[in-house]
Amino acid sequence: MKIITWNVRGLNGHGKRSVLKNSLLHYAADIYVLVETKVKAHRAKKIRASLFPDYDLLANYDSCTNGRIWVLWKPSSLKVHKIEESPQSLHVLVDQGNAKCFIISAIYNSNLAMERLDTWNALQRLASSISIPWLVTGDFNQVRFIEEKVGGSKIPPSLLKPLNDCIDFCSLQDLKSVGNSLSWCNQSVGKKRILARLDRALVNEEWISEFPSSLLHYGPSLISDHAMMQISTVDDIPKEPKPFKFHAMCVSHPDFIKVVSEAWHSHSKGSPLFTFCLKLKSVKAALRKWNLAGFGDIYANINSSRKKLLDFQGQLQHAPLNEDLISKEKAARMEYSQAIHAENMMARQKAKQFWLSQGDSNTKFFHAAIKSRRMLNSIRKCKNEQGDLIEDLSQVKSHTLLYFQNLLNQDRLMNHPGQIEISKTLNADEQLSLSRGFSVEEIKQVVMDSPKLKSPGPDGFTAEFFQSCWDIVGKDLCEAVQHFFITGRLLKQVGATFITLIPKDACADSLDLFRPISLCNFIYKVISKLLAGRMHRVLEKLISPHQMAFIKGRKIQDSIFLANDLVKNIHSKSRGNLSVLKADLRKAFDSIHRPFIYFMMQKMGFPMVFIDWIRTCLEVAKFSILFNGSPLGFFGSSSGIRQGDPLSPYLFVIAMEGFSAMMEDIRSNGKIKVPSSNGVSISHILFADDLIIFMKDHIGTVREIANVLKQFSTLSGLHLNCNKSKVYIGAKISQRRAIHDILGVKDSSLPVCYLGLSLFSKSLKANHCQFLVDKIRKRISSWKTRLLSKAGRLELIRSILSSYSIYWSTAFALPCSIIHAIEALLSKFFWSGNEADRSFHMVAWKSICKPKVEGGLGIRSIAEWNKACILAQLWDLLQKRPSLWTDWVYASYLPRTSIWLKKKRSYDSWIWKHILDCRDTLKQHIHYVVGDGTSFSFFYDPWLPSGQSIFDLSGDLIRHNLGLPHDILIGHLLQDRCWSLPPPRTMEMVNIWPIIYSIPIQNYSDSICWKHNNGVWNVRNAWEVTRKTRPKVAWCSLVWAHPTIPRYSITLWQAALGKLTTGDNLQKRG
């Protein structure tokens, strides 16, 4: 079935109708939904006859004389009945005859927010009575999220809420779409041009179940200012063979181990690697055969076992003491439970919902998630390089295969990179540690530590298979892995790899909007993880501090802090002399030259045997594209590294060190001007392929950096994506045009998204964080949460939703309004499953955000966790954790002063100010231990037993009386690790000197210690001691005792608090 929805902007003009007739009938749709027709009732019949002679018409003339909404259909194949109408909506029931009926709600909303509320209320009222497929489509005259509008004024978050509330209440979701989803344009040019997603198609779960291949195509706008929407429900994806995949449900079957053992021991000839692959192939065949015999049709098994159980239970009604029937009923009950468990495990694995606790299984939820994933991840149409939409599925497949063959086989010629000089290399001991073999214990540890149910490669086996069958397969697996490290050779089948395409957003319509993730065979992943583990140990030494990804001890927050601190004055007309290039590297992992990686490894001193192991792992790869779940093609590659391969992050970091070396070379030779302070210079920061370059106001600097980028792209294959890269130019800089011309990128303005957070120059505002709230709302909307109990929703909050706010909390002190907005979302989600349902919130969210022993549900308060995370930033600085951020802070903010004495300045960065604000809190929970005295300020650090500094007790009086410099350290007043203080000259000294002499001097370096948890610092411990604690409850162990089922525990928890939805409680709430 085809449905066309379009805001036509009037049907009265003869010329316009002529164009529309040619355009609309070209698509031969079964149903047309036209809005803003502007046709009065007395002219409707004539215009309908001229445009759609074979179609019948329903319109909302009873409530709107101008006929804002038309629904047309072919009476030969469909029957359409009006349900209700309003000036802004028309709801109809479509009868397909033998097929299932469905509802279409045609929308043409008002420009006024208050009037749009009538539509949302009507949809919510209608939703309560709908249990069949439902499509809501038309011109909503409103966007859902802030990123759905480009240009014009910013949208207040409050205007987004009513529509999102309605969508959540009705359990609707956006239909998968292709084309330009910014469906409306005001037709202006330049800065006045505005685009927005005003037109959309929403569907319910029943629609997805009935029409799983539904697709929305945003077409041309032609004579309107709105794009035409084409909705297709035809399942034109042919059923093709799917690759074998091991299902976790098999492990629980009593015959599983026997089947694997018999198949595994049936082959034993050949090299260890060949024998392993042959045995795995034998097991695959045996499991396929056994699955059909042992499990067969899972749903048929459930029905037959349920019928058998009911039969025996019915017989027991007449003969309750019959021992034979009791035994058979018990066996039937076990069989039925196993069938249900098998279905649940398979559905959980397919749905990729590994967060849900075993005690709150919900197969219906899993099946809904599976259908939703399949709809979003399917590819039926895509654009080619010229932007033309390919609609024929066979041509889409050919285009996909050719695209990735070209992407992964780029020109691998590399100029001799002699200009790259690496200052840090491996020593002989480190080289020896890298090149030694791997023990059985190391191999087994990698296997046992692997996630159980991650998507398998072409072999089809997950880690759970190898973990469950280790006693059978472990010896052969270890010998096969060790055989590779001895010979340096891998079989082609080991390097076989699936590429699964993950859309970056719901409207992905070209292949560059899909993320290609490699699914490798399990034995290859074991080899790769072993090599990656060894590389990880040495990279901290080799990689410059400018790179902060994948290196032990370095944090993503360092990049965020540093970038935000450096751009703090970019908008200042007096201080804004900095330009910032936010560089996007085009298809970085897929296009990098492998010879460049090998060259960099040689320059760093990696042993040749280790490099050869890496080379074999990369060159042996052969790819098949998982196109709608079925393998497509089988081809080799000459460039790129696999996203999803454990080795790839470390190899990429090694390659990018070449760029850091080139930047350091031109910086140290004075060719560029970059931010610097007291010997610390920052030309760039890197987090994987996220690159930011900092340039002072000097056109020569821009030219040098452009040259480095060009040289590096020639050597490495990593090219600047000029369309996505942006330059941010300081307000004081006059040569703006020259800068973006030299770099070849457009200029833009802050704030901008960086590493999932905001990069801003002033203070963090609520509107900077709005996309955090939107992200949580989107995630909630994507789940079939009404199918989950409160226990399931609680687990979602813990494992997924909380992670979004936690990530932001680690970097920024979140605005109170944002914290309240997130907590309101989470509270409504917990109690009702969506944001809009008005279910009673029987327990306040602040009470839920308490540990279980204090009567809560163990969810952490965002505000309290945020406070602990800001304390962690100060703690890291006090500990002088090695990082470029730490170096920058001590060079630019604390060159010769204590952090405890530092005052805030108006032009300091917002992040730095918030770190300073938490000093008094942290001071209460730490103590200074004096060692060699080389780290602590004698006058200004709080190293006295009272937790105070000498300055706290007497100001600068003692220092002035002694005539000592302000930056003197404790070590200057120690001799042979004993105190060597000058004679006291004032009463202040007389009072303080005995306190100092009583402090023991330790035989190690100075240290700052955490007062609690036996001195063990982490953010959780900081949260524990700084949060507001409440009395413990006596019933905690009763409610949460193992192995209670979570959903029952939630009910018990409410009962213990006296907060069940009983009549008296509801009466109290009115």
TrEMBL record:
It comes from the Eukaryota. It comes from Anthurium amnicola. This is Retrovirus-related Pol polyprotein LINE-1. One of its GO terms (molecular function) is catalytic activity. Residues 483-759 form the Reverse transcriptase domain. Gene3D superfamilies: Endonuclease/exonuclease/phosphatase. InterPro entries: DNA/RNA_pol_sf (IPR043502), Endo/exonu/phosph_ase_sf (IPR036691), Endo/exonuclease/phosphatase (IPR005135), RT_dom (IPR000477), RVT-Znf (IPR026960). SUPFAM superfamilies: DNA/RNA polymerases, DNase I-like. Pfam families: Exo_endo_phos, RVT_1, zf-RVT. The lineage of its organism: Eukaryota, Viridiplantae, Streptophyta, Embryophyta, Tracheophyta.
